Amino acid sequence: MRVGGQAIMEGVLMRSPNFWGMAVRTPAGEVDVQAEPFRSITRKSKLFRLPIIRGFLSLAETMWLGMKALTLSTNIALGEEEDLSKKEIAITMLVGLGLAFLLFLAAPVLGTKGVGYLIGDSIENPILFNLVEGTLRIGIFMLYLVGITAASKDIKRFFAYHGAEHKAIKVYERGEDLVPENARKLDTTHVRCGTSFVLYVLVLSILVFSLLPIDWWVEAVFSRVVVIPLVAGIAFEFIMWSAKNQSNLVVKVLIWPGLQLQKLTTREPTDEMVEVAMASLKKVLDKEDEARIKPDATGQLVI
Question: Nearest CA to 236 among 63, 80, 44?
């Protein structure tokens, strides 16, 4: 069974095929664990399960679920009772998407236009334009990661929970008992990490964006917005394919940059953090077991 997860505030979210759950360390030092049924939108239609389409839809629902869990975990970690509404979560996501639009779409295009003006001539070749634009975009992303890590101790703890999430999943995938001792020998990288996914999107965008107009900066920016779902879908298919073939030498070379980039977004977790991640994973696995084995009308267990 394939499982995935995300770091949240003082805890970890885990997803299995039919459930999502989270475990959060409370101010009292206890572990708050909860889980709910989850049915991916990609399972509601054959169209939604087509390659590339399923990737973008999975990304969208992962962002929504991650924001929901991050909000809930923040309330638990801070000992607050009030939860954000769906409307407030949606507004928060829109603000985040707006900042991402400015940083990773508008800024690289305008920056590339600016480079052309600085050298005294506009960059008219689409391939050259997108090489410069893509380099700026990757550079902005790297600076963003370094900047937020240096500016906040909370981010470092968040990244440590990210490492704990990876370790817990790797222990499960190795078929070992979900105890912190089994995670100590493992590193904090994972081939299906979202950090690698973002890098693949950035690199693939250089290729895809080279087919788009570059004359007017507004047209250039919004044409990129339109094809982002395509790029994200392709990146999703690549990351799923690479996870199944990671023992292949060529695949190892292709995924190596993403694994190295994860050193910026993960930190070595404590045993207590790994314990939280494993509690979340155990919860969704238990829910899956309960869903498969249910008593029938006579009280007999059926699978």
Answer: 63
Task: Show which of 58, 84, 110 is a domain's final residue.
Answer: 84
Q: Note the residue count of the chain.
A: 303
The residue type of 300 is Q
Domain membership of residue 105 as a residue range: 99-270
Q: Within a domain: residue 291?
A: no
| Residue 282 domain flag | no
- Indicate if 18 and 122 belong to the same structural domain: no
What pLDDT tens digit does each residue of the chain (303 aa) get? 899 999 999 999 999 999 999 999 999 999 999 999 998 888 888 999 999 999 999 988 998 899 889 888 988 988 765 555 666 667 777 887 788 888 888 888 888 888 776 665 566 777 888 888 889 999 999 999 999 888 888 899 999 999 999 999 999 999 999 999 999 999 999 999 999 999 999 999 988 888 777 777 788 888 888 889 999 999 999 999 999 999 999 999 999 999 999 999 999 999 999 999 999 999 999 999 998 865 443 333 333
* Coil vs helix vs strand at 215: coil
Q: Identify whether residues 49 and 186 lie together within a single domain.
A: no
* pTM of the predicted model as reported, rounded to 2 decimal places: 0.86
CB neighbour burial string for 152-174, b if at least 16 within 10 angstroms, e if fewer:
eeebebbbbbbbbbbbbbbbbee
CA dihedral 244, 248, 253, 257 (to 10 degrees): 20
Between CA 267 and CA 274 the distance in angstroms is: 12
Q: Which helix (H) or strand (E) holds 22?
A: strand 19-25
- CA distances to 145, 163, 280 from 9, rounded to whole Å, are 17, 13, 13
Residue 118: CB atoms within 10 Å: 8
